[in-house]
Amino acid sequence: MALIQRIADQSQASDILKISPQAVRLQQATCTAELQQQISAECFATQIDSNFATSARKLSDFKLVAMDMDSTLITIECIDEIADMQGLKAQVSEITEAAMRGELEFQESLTRRVALLKGLDASALQKVYDERLQLSLGADKMLKAIQQAGLKTLLVSGGFTFFTDRMKTRLKLDYTHANVLEIADGKLTGKVVGGIVDADEKQRTVERVCAEMGIATSQAIVMGDGANDLKMMKIAGMSVAFRAKPVVRAQADVALNFVGLDGVLNLLN
């Protein structure tokens, strides 16, 4: 591709190494901050993901992969799809988007959204799982690779245990943590049982699991898409923004905007 060759020439790369059918690595490239910005902008405009690394990282450097669920491991926001059963998807989605952009405090946003679900038959949860929940592009391949390499997995979500429990069984995940929807007489009450899994709780969960495993948080890869993922991403050895909001892309070590979740494997020897 002409763009890749031009970038290789600009950065004085010693070699263009093809590491997969969709990915190349420019070896020993030299980039100023200005050139990095230029390359990033050109690649983004051409819908190519790019990443600059000062040293090679190996999959064996890590022991845990922690993931957000909604819009990261899976393609949907579960609460938005549940709300669709009430005819309130647009209203709930607007609150969800504001929270993910960091414009609305997460606990407040979740409390408001869950309250709108009051009275909905609990069978709607299974309907969302059966009819609408899909894994994100590359999720299967990524999970198989990291599990085969012996890494543990954590799904930590501001969503709901109804879905994380099923993901844990389906994907053979090691740890999950999410919010519990209150159900009475077969209907949602519009409340969450116990504390809310917000940004602070996500960070504490990653720290707790790492402590249980006897590893440092720097040995964790953390993936997310929204502002409520930033705190757990900041303590990771590698933070990955997947199809993320601009505020998250700007602060992550890696931004996967166009490739699947398995794109992270191309960054690890």
Describe this structure in words.
- The chain has 269 residues and is of the alpha/beta class.
- Helix 3 packs antiparallel against helix 4 (89-100) and helix 4 (89-100) runs antiparallel to helix 5 (106-115).
- It contains eleven helices and nine strands.
- The longest helix has 15 residues, at 199-213.
Total count of domains: 2
What is the CATH homologous superfamily assignment of the largest domain?
HAD superfamily/HAD-like
Biggest sheet record:
7 strands, mixed
Give the overall shape. elongated
Strand content: 15-25%
Which structural class is indicated by helix and strand composition?
alpha/beta
Identify the strand order in the major beta sheet.
6-5-4-3-7-8-9
Distance between the termini: 23 Å
What's the count of strands?
9
Mean pLDDT level: 94
The sequence of SSEs as H and E is HEEHEHHHHHEHEEHEHEHE
Going by CATH, the architecture of the largest domain would be 3-Layer(aba) Sandwich
Work out the helix count.
11
Radius of gyration: 20 Å
Helix content: 25-40%
**What's the CATH first level of the largest domain?**
Alpha Beta
CATH topology of the largest domain: Rossmann fold
Uncertain segments are: none
Keywords: Amino-acid biosynthesis, Hydrolase, Magnesium, Metal-binding, Serine biosynthesis
Organism: Undibacterium parvum
Active site: 68, 70
Protein name: Phosphoserine phosphatase
